[in-house]
Amino acid sequence: MSYELSINGEKYIVDVDGDIPLLWVLRDTIGLTGTKFGCGIAMCGACTVHVDGVPVRACVMPVADAAAKPITTIEAIGETEAGARIQKAWLDIDVVQCGYCQSGQIMSATALLAANSAPTDEDIDAVMAGNICRCGTYPRIRAAIKQAAEGR
What we know:
Shape: globular
Strand content: 15-25%
Largest sheet: 5 strands, mixed
Order of helices and strands: EEHEEHEHHHH
């Protein structure tokens, strides 16, 4: 079946089964490889994208559920005010170690900052708990979110 997707402000028509996960359409059909596969069961957060402004796990979201809704991936998150601040803070704080989880981390952090301009440590921990970093850069992630919230 054909689905029209609006991804990062561009329209795509994809001919795929409606139950295929959005992640595989993004990566394999459209070629946007910034969104990563981690666990396949929505537990690690590596595949986080925004659908209609809400962070979702693309590894379990059927493409049919995302059709006709705006989708934002890591490739375009820097075009938003919150995304640009988060990405700058990520670089300033030198958050990345191996980098594999970082697209999902940035997508979740951006959604947090867009919804809450002054998150507390508890707010940050609650929102970011679903994103696993095997390198353990959690203190730098929190510091970067705080810096982005302060607008530095």
